[in-house]
Amino acid sequence: xxxxxxxxxxxxxxxxxxxxxxxxxxxxxxxxxxxxxxxxxxxxxxxxxxxxxxxxxx
Length: 58
Known about the structure:
Layout: E1 8-16, E2 19-26, E3 35-37, E4 40-41, E5 44-45, E6 49-51
Antiparallel strand pairs: 1-2, 3-6, 4-5
Protein name: Ig-like domain-containing protein
């Protein structure tokens, strides 16, 4: 996997008390970035979310 930390931004939107919707934006994504990702905050952690990079969308 390429160096994700240097290429990502996270957008956060509050939904309701104790809930936040988050979007992971990756610049210059590569096919190798495909995989299972989790979101964590403190001791809480989401279920794995599959991410598949297919190519440019524009």
